[in-house]
Structure to design on (419 residues):
């Protein structure tokens, strides 16, 4: 910069201007120096230092951010493991505590169960339970069980005493029954012998007298003797049915039925018989001959005995049909029939549906007993003035059925009355 002096340099004005210029020059130079120190560009001076410092701070901040991020990730990863370990530890502790608690709770129950099992195996043995638990219900249950076992033991002892008493009574009954059987056979023999003699004497006197006026009385005597003889036979038959064991054999039911028919065909000279036998399948049946004969004889004889005199012909229809496990036998007649109010009682001992009955009241009772003895069933349907129909279902008496009948006391399903 060039300043031109046009006036006197020593004048005050010039001095002031000179000082001002000097001050300006000094300030300008200081400004230049300051700018140089600050740096005219970013590559020098204070700006450079500031830029370098800012760059350093930024780098350090970035490094710190990376480090903190890594540490955060590491802490997060470690926290997962810590969480997993805590979960497993918690589960493990829960299982251990559950096992301990369950053991503490089930220990008295286990003792109680063992005591129950021991009691079930040996009911006659006393069971002692020492259960210590804070659960009042279990203590009460154990105490109740002990009391129960004591009562059961007392009942077993009572049952055993009564069983022994029953056994003694059964032995006595067996002995009495054996003696009764011998008595029945003895009495039957002793009674039938004089009856046979008496019947012979009655017939002899009747032939010798030849007096029609007294023949009626001889007929009455003959009927009474036959009735008493039939009663004795029924008692013997009942005794045999109760005492004798089952003896199965192959039976020709057609021949047995025809034999009974022939034995009764001429029971009444005024009787006209229309007999029909229907077969469905083989007539053979494995059963007990004595009892089957008793059943057929009583039922068929009743058809002849109680025929309707107002009808000219006795229609007797007998059916034999093979069943899956035995045979079904039907016996139907057109006799006098049975009133409805008698049907449920005709199988009772000594029951007679009519005061004019010719029987002893034992026939149908013996039939029912014999049917039950061989495990069969009997049904009856009847209408007064029309006729009666009996249906028998007799099983095959194989060894298995015989054993079953023995186990159940030789009791069958029984009888059915159809009104």
């Amino acid at each position: 910069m060039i300043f031109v002096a046009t006036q006197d340099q020593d004048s005050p004005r010039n001095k002031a201007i000179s000082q001002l210029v000097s001050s300006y020059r000094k300030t300008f130079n200081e400004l230049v120096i300051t700018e140089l120190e600050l740096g005219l560009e970013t590559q020098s001076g204070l700006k450079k230092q500031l830029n370098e410092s800012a760059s350093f701070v930024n780098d350090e901040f970035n490094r710190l951010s990376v480090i903190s991020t890594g540490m955060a990730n590491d802490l997060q990863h470690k926290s997962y493991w810590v969480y997993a370990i805590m979960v497993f530890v918690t589960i493990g502790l829960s299982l251990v505590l559950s096992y301990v608690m369950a053991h503490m709770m089930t220990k008295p129950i286990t003792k109680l169960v063992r005591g129950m099992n021991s009691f079930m195996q040996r009911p006659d043995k006393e069971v002692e339970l020492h259960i210590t638990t804070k659960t009042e219900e279990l203590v009460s249950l154990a105490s109740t069980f002990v009391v129960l076992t004591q009562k059961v033991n007392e009942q077993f002892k009572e049952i055993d005493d009564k069983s022994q008493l029953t056994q003694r009574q059964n032995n006595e009954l067996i002995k009495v029954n054996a003696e009764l059987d011998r008595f029945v056979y003895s009495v039957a023999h002793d009674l039938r012998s004089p009856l046979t003699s008496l019947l012979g004497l009655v017939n002899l006197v009747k032939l010798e007298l030849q007096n029609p006026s007294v023949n009626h009385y001889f007929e009455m005597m003959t009927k009474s003797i036959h009735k008493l003889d039939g009663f004795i036979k029924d008692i013997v038959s009942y005794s045999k049915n109760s005492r004798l064991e089952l003896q199965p054999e192959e039976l020709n039911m057609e021949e047995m039925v025809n034999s009974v028919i022939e034995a009764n065909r001429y029971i009444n000279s005024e009787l006209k018989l229309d007999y029909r036998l229907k077969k469905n399948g083989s007539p053979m049946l494995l059963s007990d001959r004595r009892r089957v004969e008793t059943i057929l004889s009583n039922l068929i004889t009743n058809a002849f005995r109680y025929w309707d005199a107002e009808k000219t012909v006795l229609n007797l229809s007998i059916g034999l049909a093979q069943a899956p496990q035995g045979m079904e036998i039907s016996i139907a007649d057109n006799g006098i029939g049975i009133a409805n109010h008698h049907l449920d009682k005709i199988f009772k001992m000594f029951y007679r549906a009519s005061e004019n009955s010719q029987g002893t009241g034992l026939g149908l009772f013996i039939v029912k007993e014999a049917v039950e003895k061989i495990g069969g069933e009997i049904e009856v349907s009847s209408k007064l003035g029309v006729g009666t129909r009996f249906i028998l279902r007799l099983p095959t008496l194989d060894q298995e059925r015989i054993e079953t009948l023995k186990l159940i006391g030789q009791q069958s399903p029984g009888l059915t009355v159809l009104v």
